[in-house]
Amino acid sequence: MSDTRPSEADRPGQERRPDMGALAIAAGLAIISVVIAWNTATMGGVASYSRVGPTAFPYAIAAVLFVLAIWTAVEAWRGDFPEREADNIPPILWIVGGLAAQMLLLKVAGFSIATGLLFALTARGFGRGPLWKTVPIGIVISLAIWFIFSRGLQLSLPAGPLENLL
After folding, report:
1. pTM: predicted TM-score of the whole model, two decimal places
2. What is the C-alpha to C-alpha distance for residues 16 and 80, in angstroms, rounded to an integer?
C-alpha cells in the first residue's frame, strides 16, 4: 500500500525553510577548510623539489572539505535534510560528564580510574547497568588496557595509584 498523503513540502502554502543546523555545519566545514589551506600555505621549510610534497594532501583535504561545505549549504538551503529527532538531554549530559571527569582526573587519578569513570558514565548514558557495577568493570578493563599499552608497547600513559601498584 502506498501512502497518498502529501508530504510536508508538497502541501500548498507550506514551504520548507532552510535548515539552520545544516547551514551551521556547512559554515563550520568551510571555516575548517580555509584554516587548513591557510595553515598549509604559511607552513615554512617545505621542500619544493617536486610538485607532490608534504603540502599536497592538506590542500586536497581542504578542497574536499570546501566542496562538502558548499554541497551541505545547498542541501540545507533547499530544505532537503530529513527532520531530526528531538534531543534526549540526560544521556548527553552523562556522556559529556564522563568526558569531563576523564579530562580532569587523568593526571591526578591516573589512566585506569579516569577512563573507568568515563566507561561507567557513558554506560549510564546509554541506560546500561548501575554505577556501582560499571565503575569497577570500567576500571578493570582500563587497567588491562593501560598494562598492554604501558608494559607491552612501551607507550607512556598517565599512571595513578593503581598503576603504581603494578
Report:
1. 0.60
2. 9
